[in-house]
Each structure stands twice: as structure tokens, then as C-alpha cells.
Automatic annotation (TrEMBL):
InterPro entries: Ald_DH/histidinol_DH, Ald_DH_C, Ald_DH_CS_GLU, Ald_DH_N, Aldehyde_DH_dom, ALDH7A1-like. This is aldehyde dehydrogenase (NAD(+)). Pfam families: Aldedh. Keywords: NAD, Oxidoreductase. It comes from Streptomonospora nanhaiensis. Belongs to the aldehyde dehydrogenase family. Its EC number is 1.2.1.3.
Amino acid sequence: MDTSALPDTERLAERARDALGRCGVERLREPVGAAGVARTPITGQILFPVEFDTAASAERAVTAAHEAFTSQWRDTPAPVRGRLVHRLGELLREHKADLAALVTVEAGKIHSEALGEVQEMIDICDLAVGLSRQLYGRTMPSERPGHRLMETWHPLGVVGVITAFNFPVAVWSWNTCVALVCGDTVVWKPSELTPLTALACHGLLMRAAEDVGAPADVHRLVLGDREVGEALVEDGRVALLSATGSTAMGRAVAPRVAARMGRYLLELGGNNAAVVAPSADLDLVVRGSVFAAAGTAGQRCTSLRRLIVHEDVADEVARRVVDAYKQLRDRIGDPFEESTLVGPLIGERSHTAMRAALERAQADGGEVLVGGARRWEEAAADAYYVEPAVVRMPAQTEVVREETFAPVLYVLAYSTLEEAVELHNGVPQGLSSAIFTQDQAEAERFLSAAGSDCGIVNVNIGTSGAEIGGAFGGEKDTGGGRESGSDSWKAYMRRATNTVNYGGELPLAQGVRFL
Ligand code: NAD
């Protein structure tokens, strides 16, 4: 890539403005108090100023969402609520290219992955619309004659959604589409690094609300950094805080929400590994690993960070992965270019973290087999393009146990499956995992309770790229939350257990006699 291939910032700003206009964001924002900016990692430059919120304007947003909840939304029948999400899905389909362009401009994702992220939003709309007719409670047999025992599910209230830069729209939609059909209203604080995608999503949702006659305040957007997020953390009217981001953020947020007896749902950092058994199909291993480790420039929570390979095939796997990485070298650059496979890091901090991790790994005896260099540094001083790196490690040292949010893949060798599982589980995080094997018994052991301790456990595919039908989330330092499909909707509702006496007598449970 030469730098003439990088689009200039003015052209990117124009492209963003056009996409925003089509999504119904004519003016960037009413003045609410704080000066913010939208920036692109493609050139590292500022696109244009954007008005950010303050803690006070965030509080007003919660007031409006709370009012919409109590006055209208919680009593709107769930299938009617589903119509709003259905209409949003139609608008997302219509504006798929606009939203994907904004994701690329702001997060630096290659265009095909940006389109995939928007598709994920469309998919969750479909799922949530179906869900709007399936918020089932159970009926249990009562031990008392003439009684019925059942559960009903009710909306919680205002859901505060805090999201990370790397999935600027999909994670919002997982939360918001499900919360809305569950009868909650939403206040969204996106990453301060991705305000434009948020404005576009909010614009489309407001259009959908107008089209179906839903109250506009079912969704409020508040822009800004952690200070604005903290306003949601502290507000007792935010019944559920769903926060996606680093483990450090989760540690700051969780005790504060718990102290006010609020609920939280955390989707935090990962340190994902794949175990490669001697029987593995190595073609699958190489393809699956390169996409999972180098895709999205290593900036997915599910990115593959550790390859734990049986000693009999470790050299061959390392050699083949390195060969595949060498082919990436000419495909690092402008994420809008069709041929690009690796876009920029989000910013300088990620690059510093990657450099530091590589240095620490080498100090621990690791050998950098390929990658690690910064590209076109002189010509694009504020943009951070890097060659994805593979490092052969003699042991799982401290740096390997940490999440470095950049494309660094550590290769470790093992001799028995027990050792592989111990290495695999020997990190603080517990998000996504995989085993590559042709041995069914081995796969089952990895899937069993004594196997992987992660929330996502795959066989013969990589760690990233989950579908929305399953519940998404992880254990340990990943925070324990579950979002998206399966029965994740239950996190957005409260359960009431009802006993109805239609018998005319008043027998007490457990045979108790009184009066
Ligand atoms: P980050 O923690 O820096 O920020 C995430 C969000 O939290 C931002 O909106 C930020 O403004 C807000 N925030 C930070 N501190 C806060 C506080 N004290 N109170 C309230 N809000 C606060 O994360 P990031 O750099 O944007 O994203 C990368 C991280 O997110 C990685 O660790 C990645 O693994 C993780 N992530 C996890 C998932 C998942 O589903 N498990 C998904 C995407 C990203």
C-alpha cells in the first residue's frame, strides 16, 4: 500500500456527512453542553466537531426515557412493541451501506466486516420481532387444590446501554432491540470514539418510532466519555446497566450499580484461545486462526490471542500460520479498499499496547515469527497501521495472560489434552474458545464441564464471528453477562411468581395450619 491509497480526511468527512443525512441526522446535534469530535482512524484526523452531553443532560435523558416507560411503553402490548423493531429492521436494510460506511470511517473496520456488523443488527431485529410474541412464562402444578401457580415477565424500566468502539452498532442493537420488545426504554452511551454511527442508528430508530407511532423517548442517545457513562451508572432509575468494554471499565461500574441494588449485565474483555490437537485438519486451523487473530486488526473481544498446539504439529502449524500472515502484508491499509484485509488500529494507545506486549513477550523468551512493524508511519503520522504478529512462546507468561487489544497471536505447545485445557483456562478471562480436532471424544472433553471454562466453546471453527441465535457472553473477568439470542431476553425483564386461588378454600402451603 502506498499512502496515496489512503483517502483524505475531507473526503471521509463528506462521505460520513452524506451517510448521516440519509439516516435522518441533518444537524449533528442540538447544543447540550460539551465540545466533542468525531475522528477517523483511517487517517487519525478529526472529521468534524460533534456536540457531546454532560452529566446533567444525561440525567435529563434518563428522566425522558423513564417517563416514556411509565406513561406508555410498559403497557404497550409486546407484539405492538415488536412493530417498532420490525420497522427499524426495514430501515436498517435500506441503509445498510450508509451504516457500514460509517462503521468503516469511525472504527476502521474493513468494508466487508462493517457490512457484516450491520447484517447482525438486521438479524437481531428479526429475532426480537419473533420474541415479541414469545416472552413466555411457565405454569407449574400447585401443591394446593384449586390453585394455579405461574410466572409472568414484566419490563424492568430504563436500560442504560454503554458500548465499546469495536462493535459500535451491533452491540447496541443486541441490547436495544431485545430491551424494546421486552417493554423497556433505552438510554445509550456509545464509545466516545464512535459518535457518528450512534447518531445514525438513533436517527433511524426515531424515524421508525414516528412511522409506527411509538413515543420518541423510548430511546435516548447521550454522547460523551466515561463521565457521561457514570451518570447512567449512578442513576437509580436505570434499572439495568448493560455495559460492554474493558474489564477495567466493568470493575469500575459493577460495584457502583450493585451498591444501589441495580442490575448489571457485563460484556468485558476476552483472551481467547484455540487448542489444536494432533488429529486436526490443519487447513481449517490456518484459515480459522488467521481470520480470528488478524481480522478486525485483532480488535474483537473474541479475537484469537492464543494458539495452543500439540507438540507434534506445533512447528508445522506455526510455519503455515506465518506463511498465511506473510500474505496479509500487502493487504494492510485503507479499509474501504476491496483488497484490504487489515485496517488501522483505533489509535495510538492500541499501538503502544501492542509494542509493549511484543517487548515483554520477547523479554520472556518469546520469538516474534512474523509482523509487529508499524506501516507508513512517516506519511500518516496519526494513523496506526500494523502488521499482525505471531509470537512463539516457551510458556504462558503474564503478558500472554493479559488481553492486548491488537493483532498479536501467541503460539504455545502442549503434550497432553489435560495440559492444553490447563493452559487454556489459565487466564483471568473466559469469553470464547475453540478446539480443532477430528477426535470426537477429545472434542467432547473440551465441551464438557471439565473442559473449556468459557461462555463460547467451538469445535473446528475459530473463536470469533458468533451468530445472534445463541446467547453471547463469557465468564470470569469477561463479566458473566449474556446478550443476543437464546433466553438472554430474561435479563431485560423481571419475573413475577403468581399464585391464583380459584377454589374458595384457603389451604396453606407446606400443610401449615393457622386459625
Ligand atoms: P473501554 O472500556 O475503554 O470503553 C467502553 C465504554 O465504557 C465506553 O463507552 C466508555 O466511555 C465507557 N466507560 C469507560 N469507563 C467508564 C466508567 N468508569 N463508567 C462508565 N462508562 C465508562 O473499552 P473500548 O476500548 O471501547 O473497547 C475494547 C474493550 O471492550 C476490549 O477489552 C474488548 O474485549 C471489550 N469488548 C467486549 C465485548 C464483549 O461482548 N465481551 C464486546 C466488545 C468489546
